[in-house]
Design goal:
By secondary structure, the chain is α+β, with helices and mostly antiparallel strands. The protein is built from 5 helices and 6 strands. The strands form 2 sheets. A 4-stranded mixed beta sheet has the order 4-3-6-5, with helices on one face. A two-stranded antiparallel sheet has the order 1-2. Helix 4 packs antiparallel against helix 5. The two termini are 32 Å apart.
């Protein structure tokens, strides 16, 4: 039924204002602060957004990421090796809900501690996974149209469009045209879970 669709200036974390950071803690859970490179700016800044400018359709290392604010300096490679959280953790879970009826989790593990680079790599990798029939089945007609459009646009820009189309829809297509990383924010699902914001 689904054919081939489902086939196969350097930057560093800034000093945080503790009073502002405390407001971001969900009252139900003790919260470990995120690395400033990953956190939604509204946690520490009145304008919502992210400190890094990243289109999730691109590899996080190529082209090199830049700051999301003037003078748009290239992100230092050292940032990717920094802990993803203020108190280093071996496990981080990211929730992404691209539509009202579809959500999924991205689990990030490391024997030492999860870094900023680990988080970005995991997000990129999971979004390249095939879209399942179950996920497609939970989408509304409007959402399916949006995903279908994103799929064809992605394939048309690939170096081998026919081959990319043959591989089928991927989770990245669920995002439609909202592919800009807007940082992570606190979740009420537990102390290890953050929600991924897009625009």
């Amino acid at each position: 039924m689904f054919g081939g669709f489902f086939k196969h200036n350097s930057f560093s974390p800034r000093n945080r204002n503790q009073k502002t950071a405390n407001r971001a803690v969900h009252p139900q859970w003790p919260r470990n602060s995120l690395n400033y490179a990953l956190a939604s700016r509204y946690i520490y800044h009145p304008h919502k957004g992210a400190e890094i400018r990243w289109d999730l359709r691109n590899d996080p290392y190529n082209p090199p990421l830049r700051c999301a604010f003037p003078p748009f300096a290239r992100i230092s490679q050292s940032v990717f090796h920094e802990p993803a959280t203020y108190f280093p953790m071996r496990f981080v879970r990211i929730k992404l809900q691209p539509s009202p009826t579809v959500s999924f989790y991205i689990d990030v593990h490391d024997d030492a501690y999860v870094t900023v680079g680990h988080v970005l790599e995991a997000v990129y990798r999971v979004l390249r996974e095939p879209l399942s029939e179950s996920q497609w089945g939970r989408l509304s007609d409007v959402s399916r149209c949006r995903v279908w459009t994103a799929f064809h646009e992605r394939c048309s820009k690939a170096s081998h469009p026919d081959y990319e189309s043959y591989k089928g829809m991927k989770k990245i297509d669920l995002l439609g045209n909202k592919t800009l990383f807007q940082g992570l924010e606190t979740s009420n699902e537990g102390p290890y879970t953050w929600n991924l914001n897009l625009s």
